[in-house]
Design brief:
The protein is α+β, with helices and mostly antiparallel strands. The protein is 20% helix and 42% strand. Strand 25 and strand 26 form a beta hairpin.
Length: 415
């Protein structure tokens, strides 16, 4: 009996609950339909990834849609409000774009050979009501490119003037400009300060001189390879200047000798040697030679066998379109005897013996005090023989004669 009663009550509850749900559905029909529709309409499976692509490469956007049913997918470029495609059909006239349907849920937009103008927002749109969409951004990076204008070309200036070198470049992101010299030399900038590299599009050099002449490199970089550079040649014009290290050169007859001058000039100078207002040409006796290094020239004149007529003044002359200058070297005669190697004179030290008048009884005492023995006399004779073979001055010779006389007088007196 109790079990039958519980079963009757449960059936009643089911009927009542069904009645309540029916009444709620009748009272709110729109909410029920919305729930059914939400389960059936398309949804985006994942967000569109933003792209950063170098110019010339390929960009790929993927729009993943679940439960598309009979709805359509369209790709649009937001910036220009241009419809690019519907489904896989390309609307735009851009032949670099294609759309493919992958795995029945992804609509893939490909842009080949990306150009800088392709940068911007791209939208994937579903034609539901209201429409659903999501966007992705294409950032196009461009390696640096140096512009021909207003970038400086090779420059020719006079020494002492002011110089401004310019370099302009484009790219995305905007490139950084660095200046350096091709040979690694320092760069002189305002305030007499010198640096190895200079950052900036404009390089100014005040009161340029010949040391500033050479190749300068404008280097543009923005982190996108490749880095590019342009070579700008700075040419400084100045009149000739001569430097002579030895203005007096001595030579003996028959000796081979070389005269040397150093010239600095630009444009390149004409250089030659002169003697007695006559230009010296290459021959058997004279050999003029030039060694060039940039704007420097070393002029050498070799005289193979100096003769008596070769002594005198020689001129080294340097000329260019801005001026001319000359320098003089004097070649003088050195006697042959002075070129021979001589031994230094030998100095002989003599012992001086002084004689005085003394009493005969004091002779023995005098002999003892002076201690002049036959051995000492022999030494004196040896010194005399040695001194005769050396060069003596007139004073040394006189001293020798005087000492010999004193010795003879003393010897006669004692005997």
């Amino acid at each position: 009996m109790i079990f039958a009663f519980i079963l009757i009550i449960s059936n009643c509850c089911v009927v009542i609950n069904s009645s309540i749900q029916s009444n709620e559905a009748a009272e709110h029909p729109n909410e029920t339909n919305s729930y059914i529709q939400d389960r059936d309409i398309p949804k985006f499976g994942e967000p569109i990834q933003n792209q950063t692509i170098a110019v010339g490469r390929e960009s790929v956007f993927s729009c993943v849609v679940d439960n598309l049913q009979t709805y359509k997918i369209a790709w649009l470029k937001v910036d220009t409000q241009t419809i690019l495609s519907i489904q896989t059909h390309i609307i735009t006239k851009n032949h670099r774009m294609t759309v493919s349907h992958v795995e029945n849920r992804a609509w893939v937009l490909r842009i080949r050979d990306v150009k800088e103008s392709d940068k911007g927002w791209y939208m994937c749109q579903i034609n539901t009501d209201p429409m659903k969409n999501q966007v992705g951004y294409l950032n196009v990076v461009v390696p640096p490119d140096i512009l021909d204008y207003p970038t400086s070309t090779d420059m020719v200036v006079r020494e002492g003037s002011n110089v401004t070198l310019k370099c302009a470049a484009r790219g995305s992101p905007q490139p950084n400009i660095t200046w350096r010299r091709e040979g690694g030399e320092s760069i002189a900038i305002s305030g007499q300060r010198e640096v190895v590299t200079f950052n900036g599009s404009i390089l100014s050099i005040s009161r340029v001189n010949r040391l500033h002449m050479g190749a300068y490199l404008c280097i543009a970089s923005n982190g996108i390879p490749p880095t590019v550079s342009k070579r700008v040649m700075l040419i400084v014009h100045f009149p000739p200047m001569l430097m002579i290290q030895n203005q007096l050169v001595g030579s003996a007859i028959g000796q081979k000798i070389m005269l040397e001058c150093q010239s600095e000039a630009y444009p390149k100078s004409i250089n030659y040697w002169m003697k007695n207002e006559t230009i010296i040409t290459k021959g058997k006796r004279f050999e003029p030679v030039e060694m060039e290094n940039a704007y420097r020239v070393i002029m050498k004149l070799t005289i193979n066998s100096v003769g008596q007529n070769d002594f005198g003044s020689y001129k080294c002359v340097s000329k260019n379109s801005l001026g001319d200058t000359d320098g003089t070297i004097k070649l003088y005669h050195i006697p042959q005897a002075t070129l021979q190697t001589t031994l230094p004179p030998t100095t002989t030290t003599m012992r001086m013996v002084t004689t005085t008048a003394v009493h005969p009884n004091m002779i023995d005492h005098r002999l003892q005090s002076e201690s002049i023995s036959s051995t000492e006399v022999q030494k004196m004779k040896e010194n005399e023989n040695a001194s005769s073979t050396s060069r003596l001055s007139s004073q040394t010779l006189a001293t020798l004669i005087y000492s010999l006389l004193c010795y003879c007088c003393l010897h006669i007196y004692l005997h």
